[in-house]
Hydrolase
Amino acid sequence: MTAFRTVSIDGLDIFYREAGSRSNPTILLLHGFPTSSHMFRNLIPALADRFHLVAPDYPGYGNSSMPSVNEFDYTFDRLAEIVEKFITAIDLKKYSLYVMDYGAPIGYRIAAKYPERVEALIVQNGNAYEEGLREFWDPIKAYWQVRSPENADKLRHLFTLEATKWQYTNGVRNLEAISPDTWNMDQPFLDRSGNEEIQLALFYSYGTNPPLYPQWQEYFRRHQPPTLIVWGQNDYIFPSDGAYPYKSDLKDVEFHLLDTGHFALEEEGDAIASYIGQFLASRLQPVPA
């Protein structure tokens, strides 16, 4: 059974999904933009017989609190701080990190700070290398350089239903395999009053991530977490150019490029669950059969 819980962190309600016995190895699942822990709705029950799974919603996403930009500092540093406090609040001592999209800069901040807690990495379209920021990012990079209303306006289309649907459908093999529940779940959260300004704040804050790439790469090299890469190779946002460099810094890498798009779990969820089960069973002890 998946439990749907809420914990108070710094006065905010942080919603999370949890399943599996705490006696089993923990996987902490960190979602991307513009979704929430909903992206893990199928993966969690697929692994809950062997693992303890926890998936929080960040502030401003899903069922967690959404303070305004005047009430909360929407930066990746602050989101990582909230997730770090969440980890403490629910008493997670060690865990494997599943990072996707925004989950990567949040998770890598925490991993680099507490490397002894991280048993393994599962990387699904989560970037830590300059090679992974290509054409899609050009207008966002312009916003990092000049935070003007004009540059912000060029990004607002990314919060529309058309753009949200595109994120789920671009690059997939079979459109009939992609449930419309995905974009129809995410879009009402994006459409909430004040949320567009939250997303623009985080687009701007994303510019703080590339300068940290060398630190995260040093974490990879120094601590060598076993790493499973399951990457949708047709992703226009985080292309597979960003997947290959992990191999240069990590010695224990299992590498899978999947013939799908950005939200690879939607089309390749069964394969990803199988890869995770086999990978962690061979790296972590004990993992029940």
About this structure: The chain has one domain: 3-283. The radius of gyration is 18 Å.
